[in-house]
Amino acid sequence: MSKTVEAIRCLSHDTVSLFIRVLCFSSALIFAAFASSACRGDEQHGFAGQVAPLFQNFCVKCHGTDEEDTQLALHQISATMDAPLQLANWSKILTRLQLGDMPPADERQPPRDDRERAIRWIKAELDRAGGRADAGEAKLRQFAYGNLVDHESLFHSTLEVAIPAEPRLWRLSPSIYEQLVNDAGGDSRSIAQPFALGPGGGIKDYAAAFVVDEPTVTQLLRNAGEIVAAQTRDKQDKETNETVVFGNAPKQFRALVETQGGPTGGQIEEALHYQFDRILQREPTADELAGFTALMRKNIRDAGAARGVRATLAAVLLLPEAVFRLELGQGPPDKHGRIMLSPRELAYAVAYALTDERPDGQLLKAADEGRLATRDDVRRELERLWQDPKTKKPRIPRFFREYFGYHRAPDVFKNDKDVKQYSGRFRAEILVNDTDQLIEWILKRDQNVLKELLTTNRSFVNYRVDSKKGPVLAHDKNHMELAYNVAIDEWTKDQPMELPREERAGILTQPSWLVAHSDNTHTHPILRGKWVRERLLGGTVPDLPITVDAQFPDAPEQTIRERLAITKDSYCWKCHQQMNSLGLPFEAYSHLGEFRKLEPVLDLQATAANVDSKGNPRGDVLREVEVDPSGVISRSGEQGLDCEVKSAVEMIHRLADSDRVRQVFVRHVFRYFMGRNERPGDGPTLIAADKAYVESGGSFKGLVISLLTSDSFLYRQLPSQVARQ
Amino acid sequence: MQLKRRDILKGITLGAGATVLTPLVRQLEAYGADAAVGHRRFVFVVEGNGLPWQQIQPIGIDRGKNYERTKKVELAITDYELPKSLEPLAKYHDRVSVIQGLSGRVCGGGHSNDFGALGACAVQHGAAVPKGETIDVALARANPGLFPIIGLGISDRPEHTTIYNCSALAANKSLPTQCRPDLAYNSLFGSIAEGAGREAFAAQSNVLDFLAGDLKKLENRLSGFERERFQQYVGAFESLRDRQSRLNEIENTLREHAPVVGDKYRSDVETDRLDAHFDLAAASLIGGLTNVVTIASGVGSLFFSVRFGGLGIQISKHGIGHGGGEGGKSAGELATIIRRFHFELIARLMDKLNAMPEGNGSMLDNTVIVYLSDAAEGHHARCWEWPFVVIGDGGGKLKRGRYLEYPYYNLAGHRPINCLYNTLLHAAGAPRDDFGMADPMLDKDVEQTGPLAELLA
Description:
The structure holds two protein chains of two kinds.
Chain A: H1 3-9, H2 13-22, H3 27-37, H4 42-58, H5 84-99, H6 112-129, H7 135-140, H8 151-155, E1 168-171, H9 174-184, H10 214-231, E2 235-236, E3 243-244, H11 251-258, H12 265-280, H13 286-303, H14 305-316, E4 324-327, E5 338-340, H15 343-354, H16 361-368, H17 375-387, H18 395-404, H19 428-445, H20 449-455, E6 458-459, E7 463-466, E8 470-473, E9 497-498, H21 511-516, H22 525-536, H23 560-564, H24 570-576, H25 580-583, E10 598-602, H26 604-609, E11 622-626, E12 631-633, E13 643-645, H27 648-656, H28 659-674, H29 683-695, H30 700-708, H31 711-714, E14 715-717, H32 719-723
Antiparallel strand pairs in A: 1-4, 2-3, 5-14, 6-9, 7-8, 10-11, 12-13
Chain B: H1 2-10, H2 18-33, E1 41-47, E2 73-76, E3 96-100, H3 116-119, H4 135-142, E4 150-154, E5 162-170, E6 173-178, H5 181-189, H6 196-219, H7 224-249, H8 251-257, H9 270-286, E7 292-297, H10 317-321, H11 331-354, E8 357-358, E9 361-362, E10 367-373, E11 388-391, E12 402-405, H12 417-427
Parallel strand pairs in B: 1-7, 1-10, 3-12, 4-7
Antiparallel strand pairs in B: 2-12, 3-11, 5-6, 8-9, 10-11
């Protein structure tokens, strides 16, 4: 089997076998098929002109007649796609082309136009034939596949203006929902969270990632009932000891159950005005008043006053605005077919971009008064919120947690016997808190933020500020300072502490990040290298083939570097070459984040000899081996960046100076604040954001405000325009 | 019963809710095809405050100390007398299996493993946030009913109406346990209720109708993928509304089997409310409302310290857990009294299911009841071992009447609770071999995946 076929085997299993089969044809067969199909109509003509040449020029070299599996030869692929198997096969071919992982990265690539032409043809034919043309698109909506969008096409875009996403709904985040519940008069601590973010790392809150399905709606209904129950609590009259129905409710609600013969239309409208204002922060429309009034009357008739009123008020909590962020746009399209978000939509978008709270009074007032209708209006409000110390902005630090992933350190369980020096309990949450504080410290300065994040040798070390005592050890018994190689008598209150430059360089050498990217009992150069490949270099690593049991060889007598040598097998190396050499420099840090020059391995001979007088084993004996922290930056995509490095610190400093790394960072900031992956149409937005960041001296605020005042944020593209992207 | 289920199928159309309903329809269709053997039902009875292995150990089977338990033990339980706690099951002796020696270290231990007990996964203590799907939910997915799963239970405070303590759809998505039997009755049998229950049911139907219609206005402003996603939201209302209709359609069945709401449904006494929940569970299973019920008796770190005043015990479970006795009875004796009460309720539930003919046997023949404590083996659990009682064979899918004991933690042949849950999934016709989270501290030689061959038929 050829090299490339081996590479293909490493792609996701369900697509691979098919792709091998599909491309398993000879050039002779291709043209035989073309000849026989030339007269079969337009689709055949398109196939011969737009698809077959690409196969011929870029695929059959490896997937030709020497391919063993010829179950699906070209002459059996009908361009009319009328059989279920053919539809499935073409759908999978389309996915590979859309994801751009075929031909493999180290093979000659088809011109972008040729690839896109082939994609368009296959997609159109699949649509027409009722096949799945969206599998690749579905993946491209996921954070994990964001890097598949060609970097050069984004940062060398020739588009006049950005082509934003289509109108969309973005489910409220769990944090925002909690706030809504509390604002509405409920207690978020006593209700179940209906919205969950997915497991795993990376940026979580993607608009396309979640649907509000039946179990979620069931929970929303239950929560709505509890919120309204809290709004309309009965009261025990102290004098008469009688229950006053709705005794603790606002007067607008109380009137509905107190009026003999049922509430008047005016009373119902007043109650609805109150509830809409409380839940949706707006007046109901005339249609809504009519609809809800009718519902109220029906419910009172069917379920009695108290129950009927409660059910109707709860329904307001199920309206789309209480469940989703609306980003539909309003008004006539501009000459590019784009419509701007409405002022109210912008008010919510701005608030939710920076905070977990609904828009404050000033934002809503600006929207209602027509002062939130331009880019400058949005910039003004963003500046105001950013500067306002009273406005909590948890979304900012959350980005850094999700981007770096260091906050997941407590999820990595450590064995008691490995953490004896930490009094037997490794408190990874303290390490996370230290890194949170470091990021906050860097953001306060807001200069060269990315470079500082990647290279600073300063660190908070087992540190917190007590409201009475001032700076203290975050925990004085577990000695978490040891993870930084700081002895307790070296710990100071003057933090962030300066750590040796040759040992620490920014977040990637923070114990929290190193632990988050480690295993239960050892380091994990693959996870660490994968992170660098994806989050700094913008590269991609194919999904783990399901046929691969990704385990370190059980050879405790070897170093991790030695154990990883097994991945140099050609089957594994196609993927591992993307990760290993970027991850191995971090072998200078233990799985607990400590800097080290020596790595303990099992001493087989000494262990065998370690027996008691009866010959029973007395336990393992370890020996220490010098760590080799060298690595290689390769396939970076930036001229002059690839090189060999002697240590993680050297590698990180080199990466921190890279334009590409900076641009990849900008791409991730885009994803977080837009709640979606960037697409080629976002090129102008990304170029402007990168420029704003550079020209502001590396200001994160400058970068975020550029993105949040971009066309990609402010506008939505009418669907027909989106389809043409 | 079969006819009633076909009735359920009959009315389901391919409206906008079809996408959401399709899996349900398919499952029901599958059930129709498999009606002769009956649908498998699962009941989880989870009791808080730990279950020391001695309290369910058949009399005459000795266990050594921890690391002395090096061998797997398989015995017929009918050769041994049941202990005091399990005596109420005497007439079903041959259906009872006791399983000792499984571990659940990954769950963490403490006063409760919260969602970890049924999830076989790590627990974020204090936050009561699930880290993954729980086994009752996984089984419900395989055996969906009109209500995929029903969670009932009591907490340490009578004022609690709904708590979130042990069942979860997925990570961060907990499912409710309904603590007030009267309110639970309304949500399950509200369609046939009189008075308040009927009214609440009607209002909910009106709201679902209204919202399903109102939301469609927004659809036109979306297209393609975005529209499809929104249609799922709209479809959810239609699906729920459809369930209300289905409940109306099976009114006769529900009337036949619905429990009579009496004082115990509104009682302040824990034993009364627990008794009522078992009534509701039986009626829901027999009435065809669901195939999976979880009854949580004082489950969860925040809810476990119940006082069983109805049994004449004034000391709380927390007090008992710390060795407290009263009235001349030791903590162990008090715990046995409480546990025995739970098995009395289980036996009564079994009697009801046994009285319902199904196929060539009874509904009980197609039911599996799993009893465990969310706090594993003790008040301050470490989860080195996790005792279970498994009753019934689920239509011949499990071996019944076994005493199974696995070697101690990390010894060759040891198995974690994940394997028991895998076994249940195999029995449910939805085999899975890697349910829950793996225990990273178990040696690689310890088999953490796959079912328990000693239990799976």
